Amino acid sequence: MSFDWSHLRFFLAVARTGRLTAAAAQLATDHATVSRRIAALEQALSARLFERSPRGSVLTPAGESLLAHVEQMENVAARIQNDIAGSDLALSGAVRIGAPDGFGSFFLAPRIGELCRRYPELDVQLIAMPRIFSLSKREADIAIGLTRPTEGRLVARKLTDYHLHLYASRAYLAEHSPIETPDDLADHLMIGYIPDLIFTPELDYLPQVPADLKVRLTSSNLIAQMRAALAGTGVCVIPDFMAATEPELAPVLADRITITRTFWLIMHADLKDTARIRAAATFIGEQVERNRALFMPA
Fold it and tell me: Would you say 136 and 152 are in contact if contact means Cβ atoms under 8 Å apart?
């Protein structure tokens, strides 16, 4: 073999983070070591793998080709651990769960401790952010998404539908003009997403509200929107499972305006049967089933 296989770990980290410093932090080493390893790999392969600039490191065509091979190797390594390792070892290590901010912070975070207690050797990483997670780049082992993927080696199963309604704080509703029809919303400040930062069309709720809306406060974060509504700023579309945690929030026109979306549990096809990932996915499914009334209240 003309190159050191261990260099590939450093290559993969730089390819996924785009920066030597970020790769160094991920690998618990220093910038110089990462740079030296990449240089040694490029020399061994007689190919330039990255174009470097002040903005970071971008894969060259040769780097893109190598990345495809290295990701296949990574998948094989994961299958080896699942197939060969004993059950105790297979249920140890890290499992990273990526979820939208609302589901991750309000539903999963209060319950995830049970998963930790059930599998003491499992290192659970919960990323609750408003974004789409790339499973092929190993940004997450399990992703909770709002759409079923149609491309790539991904498998998905439906977790649940969920309802959203308009909400405002009880204090806000007491101090402002009544909202009895959708047209009355024109007299109220609306809270919503920043249009060009909506990471999936399923979050573009406001066009489904049949009224002339004044959207004057926007945020890329649903929790921030909810906190603004709680503070009496205005009216906001909020999932029922989040609003149920705040008695100060009152539904607005609940009998007239209901929005329904779906949560999907998504895994990479090559890793779905890995014991630690399968255990975490089963746990999430159990929790959703146990609390289905939160998502689809009668």
Answer: yes
Mean pLDDT value across the chain: 90
CA distances for 52 relative to 18, 25, 49, 91, 189, angstroms: 9, 18, 10, 39, 47
The secondary structure of residue 104, as a DSSP letter, is I
What's the pTM?
A: 0.74
d(CA 271, CA 143): 13
- What is the gyration radius of the CA atoms in the chain, in angstroms? 23
Contact call for residues 172 and 233 (beta carbons, < 8 A): yes
Pairing mode of beta strands 189-192, 235-239: parallel
User: Are 144 and 287 contacting, i.e. CB atoms less than 8 angstroms apart?
Assistant: no
Q: How many CA atoms lie within 13 A of 294 on its CB side?
A: 15
Exposure of 43 by Cβ count < 10 A (0-12 exposed, 13-18 middle, 19+ buried)?
exposed
Sign of CA dihedral 10, 15, 16, 17: positive
- Virtual torsion, Cα 259, 254, 237, 102, nearest 10 deg: -80
Which phi and psi (to 5°) does residue 94 adopt?
-105, 145
Residue 87 has pLDDT above 60, yes or no: no
